[in-house]
Amino acid sequence: MKQTFSAYNIIQKKRDKEKLTKDEITWFIEGLTKGEIADYQMSALLMAIYLNGLDKLETVALTDAMLYSGKVLNFPEQIYIDKHSTGGVGDKASFILAPIAAACGVKVPMIAGRGLGHTGGTVDKIESIKGFKTEISLLDFVKLLEERGIVLIGQTGEIAPADKKIYALRDVTATIESIPLITASIMSKKLAEGASGIVMDIKTGNGAFMAKLSDAKKLAESIRQTGLRFNKNMMTIISDMSEPLGNAVGNSLEMIESIETLKGHGPADLTELSLSLAGGMIYLAGLAKTHKDGIKKAQAALDSGAALAKFRELIINQGGDPLFIDNYSLFPHTQSTLEVKASKNGFVNKMDCKSLGLHCVRLGGGRQKTSDPIDFAVGFIMNKKIGDKVKKGEILVTIHCHNNQLAIAKEISEAMIKKDITISATKSKIKKKLVIEVQTKFAPKKSKNKNI
C-alpha cells in the first residue's frame, strides 16, 4: 500500500533540522507536480532547506524526484553535450558557446531557465528576438537536435516539471543560494535532457549565488558527483563574477553583444569564457584530444564565421526573425538613456555586481514576483571595467530606460556612483583571473538505452 505523508509534518521536520527520508521527499515533489501540494507549502519547505540544508542522501533524493517528475531523454552518443551556468550578471555566454560547439560537430541540447534573483535568464534574453519559440514539444526538440545539431527551449511540462515550479518560487522567496537546491535544480534539468556530458560554469564573486570560492568549489564537487552517478562526463569551470560579464546587462542589449561577439567584435572577457566553455564541450564530445585543443577548434569556428552561421540557423529553425542579426534596431529599445559619470579621477577597483543586477531587475529587466512581465529593452552598458583608469566626468555606465523611468534611473545612477562602483586613487595590484579552476571527470561507462 502506498504510504501517505503530511506536508505539515515534512516541513516541520526540516524546520527542526531533522533529516527527510527518500520517500518523504519523493511524496512531496510528486504532490507538488500534481498540484496537491500548494505553492506556499513548497515555499515553506524551500526556506527550511535553505536555512538547515540537506545532506548528501537528501540531495540525491531531491534531485531524483525532480528528474523523474517528467520524461527523461537519453542520447548515448558522446557528441551530445550541454552547458549550464549557475547564473551571473551580463552572462550571455550560452548564445556564443552553443553555436561554436555545434559548428564543431557537437549536438547541443539546451533547456534553459528564466531570470533568477539578480541574474538574467537565457530564455528571457532569446525571446527578445521576435518570433523565437522557446516552447516546443519534446518530440520537436529531439527532431531539431538530431537534424540541426542545436536547439534552445525553456522548461516544459514534460522535462523536470517539478523544477519549473520550484525555480519560479526560489526566484521570489530568497531561497536561491543553497548548494542542495542549486544542485537538484540544475541536474534534474540537465540529466533529463539526455546529454552524455555536461560543462558547468560555476560563478563565484559578489555577483554570483556562490559568492565565496570555497562554496563554489563545494557546488562544483556536488554537481560533478551527481553527473557521475548518472554516467555523465563532467567538466566544471569556476569563473569570476565580481563584475558583469562583457559590457551589456539587459535582455536586448545582451543579445546584441552576443551577436557582436559571434561576429568577432565581442569584449575580451566574454570571448575568453565562451571559448573556454565551448572548448570544454568539444573535448567532452570526443572531438578534441584536450581542453586546450578544444579551445583552438572553438576559436577557428568563431574566426571562420561558422559559429555565426549556426546561430542564424538556430534562430530560423525556431521561428525567429534572422534580420535581427544584421539590424539591431529591430530589437526592443528604450526612448531614453542616462549617463553615469565618474565623480573623481582614479581606477575602477571594485563593483557591487549583485546590486548592478538588481538595478536591472528594478527597471523591469527581471522579475520581482513570478507574474511580472519582462521588459526586453531596459538595461545598461558598462563603459568601464575593473582595472580601468577613469577621469572625473568620464562615463562609467549608460543606463537604458524609458521616459517614465528617468527618476528611477537617476536614483540608480546615484547608487552606482556612491556605492556600487568603487574608484580608488591607485590601481589594485591583485590581478583578476576570469577562469579560476577547471576540473574534468569522465564517467567509467555509458548507458546504451535511448528513450523518451
Question: In terms of topology, how is this protein built?
Answer:
Elements: H1 7-15, H2 22-34, H3 39-52, H4 56-67, E1 81-85, H5 94-103, E2 108-112, H6 122-126, H7 138-148, E3 150-154, H8 161-172, H9 179-193, E4 197-204, H10 213-229, E5 233-240, E6 248-249, H11 251-262, H12 268-284, H13 291-304, H14 306-317, E7 336-341, E8 346-351, H15 353-365, E9 379-382, E10 389-390, E11 395-401, H16 406-420, E12 421-424, E13 435-441
Parallel strand pairs: 1-4, 2-3, 4-5
Antiparallel strand pairs: 5-13, 6-9, 7-11, 8-10, 8-12, 9-11
Helix pairs in contact: 1-3, 2-4, 3-8, 4-9, 5-12, 5-13, 5-14, 9-10, 12-13, 15-16
Give the % helix.
40-55%
- Looking at CATH, the homologous superfamily of the largest domain is Nucleoside phosphorylase/phosphoribosyltransferase catalytic domain
Query: Any idea what the shape is?
Result: globular
- The number of helical elements comes to 16
Biggest sheet strand line-up: 1-4-5-13
The CATH architecture category of the largest domain equals 3-Layer(aba) Sandwich
Q: Over the alpha carbons, how many angstroms does the gyration radius reach?
A: 21 Å
Number of strands: 13
Quick check: average pLDDT? 93
Low-confidence stretches: 447-452
Strand content: 15-25%
The span between the termini is 28 Å
